[in-house]
Amino acid sequence: MIPADRWKEYKVIDTGDGEKLEDWAGYRLVRPDPQVIWKTPKTGKDWKKVNAHYHRSSKGGGEWEFIDLPHQWQISYDLPENCGGTLTFNLKPFSFKHTGLFPEQAANWDWFSQLIAKRVKSGKKVRMLNLFAYTGGATLAAAAAGAAVTHVDASKGMVNWAKENAESSGLADRPVRWLVDDCIKFVERELRRGSRYEAIIMDPPSYGRGPKGEIWKIEDSVYDLVRLCAGLLSEDALFFLINSYTTGLQPGVLAYMLNVIIKSEFGGKVYADEVGIPLEKGGLVLPCGAAGRWYSER
């Protein structure tokens, strides 16, 4: 397990009966979590005083119940020493239980920001491509550490949100290209242009549709996408990171793909495991998906 255990302003307080109780910089939210299959009772004062509760519907989806929650608030995260300081994210509740941030990804920010900072300190450049980049957590961590980032997401609203986070983090002047585009089409054009990157991150959705209605199912499409993206890595490639929230893509599957596609060409090392958030109560770690990492030993 790769724990995101350095948060100061976020924590999972408790879990039970399909839900988790979280503290987001002083605001307490109850949200459903498919990993919480245990039926432990939700007792105690912590569960009684919350700011918002997302109720899942038996017909699919759900809705927020707002008790005492602002329209928007902020949360901060301190990167490792010498990796760029503090990131600040703008949070707000929106569709299907989300807040605009996946806090477990901090474990990956710590990992690659140190790789980037070390490479940049040696006098070399790091160009990073962030695909399915959402609200920019990975983009900001990489930019803070010294990378030039190409941030790509198909949603204009998410890209604008990421820009707001960059402003709040004091990173608006960093070399980031903010692109609203279909990720696969963008990669294909970059290959034709001969573009190269030292680092690539991707956080593909489990299911979706392309610009012409094409069905995207991660189990069927991710191997071809990774193979496509491998063609964008420079000779001095530093790392490749893929995240998955799909139970069908176990860490071992991610590791196999990276070994076959990336390590066979560039050498280096591959590591994959579950990513999780420590629980305040019980000393356990809540699984939150998987991450596959390839990195250079040079």
Protein architecture, described:
With 298 residues, this protein is α/β, with parallel strands linked by helices. The chain has a domain at 104-295: Vaccinia Virus protein VP39 (Rossmann fold, 3-Layer(aba) Sandwich). The chain contains 6 helices and 17 strands. It has helices at residues 106-121, 137-145, 156-168, 183-193, 218-230, 251-266; strands at residues 2-3, 10-16, 19-24, 27-32, 52-56, 62-66, 73-78, 86-91, 127-131, 148-153, 176-180, 199-202, 207-209, 215-217, 239-244, 269-278, 285-295. The strands form 4 sheets. It has an 8-stranded mixed beta sheet with strand order 1-16-17-15-12-9-10-11. Helix 5 packs parallel to helix 6 (251-266).
Which labels suit this protein?
298 residues; alpha/beta; Rossmann fold; 8-stranded mixed β-sheet; 5-stranded mixed β-sheet; 6 helices; 26% helix; globular
Radius of gyration: 19 Å
> What does the largest sheet look like?
8 strands, mixed
The overall strand count is 17
Structural class: alpha/beta
Shape: globular
Distance between the termini: 26 Å
- Contiguous low-pLDDT stretches (5 residues minimum) are none
Strand content: 25-35%
Give the strand order, joined by hyphens, for the main sheet.
1-16-17-15-12-9-10-11
Mean pLDDT: 93
At the third CATH level, what is the topology name of the domain at 104-295?
Rossmann fold
What's the layout of helices and strands?
Layout: E1 2-3, E2 10-16, E3 19-24, E4 27-32, E5 52-56, E6 62-66, E7 73-78, E8 86-91, H1 106-121, E9 127-131, H2 137-145, E10 148-153, H3 156-168, E11 176-180, H4 183-193, E12 199-202, E13 207-209, E14 215-217, H5 218-230, E15 239-244, H6 251-266, E16 269-278, E17 285-295
Parallel strand pairs: 1-16, 4-5, 9-10, 9-12, 10-11, 12-15
Antiparallel strand pairs: 2-3, 3-4, 5-6, 7-8, 13-14, 15-17, 16-17
Helix pairs in contact: 1-2, 5-6
